[in-house]
Write a structure and sequence with these properties.
7 helices; globular; binds manganese (II) ion
């Protein structure tokens, strides 16, 4: 890990700049897909590759909204969460922020941001995961909202966006401790709803899980493109840029049936509450932590 720290800093710096760029473009009347594409382009301009397609989840969609091909969604008065990350040689960054376009939900935005800042303040070797969760929960409930309990932060590693440990958004009594040199993403979600998300319909973001043989020639071509994402998540519309839509749909269905590819549907708050999110990737140091995705 140590020899790779410079790569982590680079990937996370690109992730942070791309996030800032995207946030600056979120305005009433702008199109969601244009902003997502601009974020992905910014990552490439800065010398990285998207670690996953930029996602903008609106209102009660908490995460994993990835624009379909030809998406016409326009920003209006929503609570918009932008989640993006770059990778450099497979080393990924992951960060997110929320923009309140409604003008009525600044406290909700503040709740997840405060929770993230409070968590960052206590991260150090020896801290229990449950203590991080407790601080996040405390900040969010003190403003009158609920943390989303079945969404969490996570370990992050080369070509692995989500690995152990699970970094909870509430006190889950996990007494596992962090140690120096670990890299984790912390991502509190605050909601006006129940604090639970369920899977919505039709995934637009997918990931290669296993290399399995494919008989169909067209599906095999599509699989070659999927393999170029090196096991990291990709958008269905990235494939539709190169192949006819019906062939992409068919190939993805086949690949999901064999277990080669997994789809990630949007995650929707159970009571249709509004949701805000804040996220940073941090390196646990001897004395605390270094926020890798903070703009310097
Ligand atoms: Mn994350
Ligand atoms: Mn993220």
């Amino acid at each position: 890990m140590a020899e790779d720290v410079e790569k982590w800093r680079k990937a996370c710096s690109i992730s942070a700049q791309a996030l800032q760029h995207g946030i600056s473009l979120i305005k009433k009347g702008a199109s969601v897909i244009d902003v997502c594409n601009a974020v992905d382009r910014k990552i490439v301009e800065l010398g990285g590759k998207p670690a996953f397609p930029a996602q903008i989840s609106l209102d009660s969609i908490a995460a994993h909204y990835c624009c379909p091909h030809g998406d016409k969604t326009i920003f209006d008065s929503q609570v918009a969460k932008l989640d993006c990350g770059a990778h450099v040689d497979g080393i990924p960054g992951d960060n997110a922020a929320t923009v309140d376009l409604s003008g009525n939900n600044s406290e909700l935005v503040k709740a997840s941001r405060n929770a993230l800042n409070a968590a960052i303040k206590i991260v150090k070797p020896g801290i229990k995961l449950s203590e991080i969760g407790e601080v996040i929960q405390g900040e969010i409930t003190s403003l009158g909202f609920s943390p989303i309990r079945n969404l969490s932060g996570h370990g992050i590693d080369r070509f692995e966006l989500h690995t152990r440990p699970t970094v909870p958004n509430f006190n889950n009594n996990d007494s596992t401790v962090l140690s120096s040199g670990q890299i984790i993403a912390i991502e509190p979600f605050a909601t006006t709803g129940e604090g639970i998300v369920n899977e919505g319909e039709s995934a637009e973001v997918f990931m290669l899980l296993a290399h399995k043989p494919v008989r169909d020639a067209a599906a095999r071509k599509i699989l070659e493109l999927i393999e170029s994402y090196e096991g990291l998540p990709f958008a269905k519309r990235w494939l539709i840029a190169d192949f006819p839509q019906f062939k992409v749909e068919l190939a993805l269905r086949q690949l999901q049936l064999t277990g080669a590819v997994k789809g990630f549907p949007p995650l929707v708050e159970k009571a249709r509450g509004l949701v805000s999110q804040a996220e940073h990737t941090v390196l646990v140091t001897d004395s605390g932590c270094e926020v890798l995705t903070r703009l310097s």
